[in-house]
Description:
By secondary structure, the protein is mostly beta strands. The protein has a single domain, classed as CATH 2.40.50.220. The protein is 0% helix and 49% strand. It has a 5-stranded mixed β-barrel. A two-stranded antiparallel sheet has the order 6-7. A hairpin with a 5-residue loop joins strand 2 and strand 3. The relative contact order is 0.26.
Amino acid sequence: xxxxxxxxxxxxxxxxxxxxxxxxxxxxxxxxxxxxxxxxxxxxxxxxxxxxxxxxxxxxxxxxxxxxxxxxxxxxxxxxxxxxxxxxxxxxxxx
Length: 95
């Protein structure tokens, strides 16, 4: 699982029929210190996340393990909205 911040939405009017009805969000990876690192990923939203929220997401074959994405051709899925996180006893993020 990775931490990321939802930075936008992606709309695709033409897509694989198995992807119909899914919401796509643009996610920027975050480091453990809450700083933006890595690039962006388009992820299927399985939990109702919104722009600006910090989320946990999975990529690769793990992305197809949620009820929303099972047996669908996706490579990333948002599976949790983060409320808080701590590192070494210090609070790094609070929603």
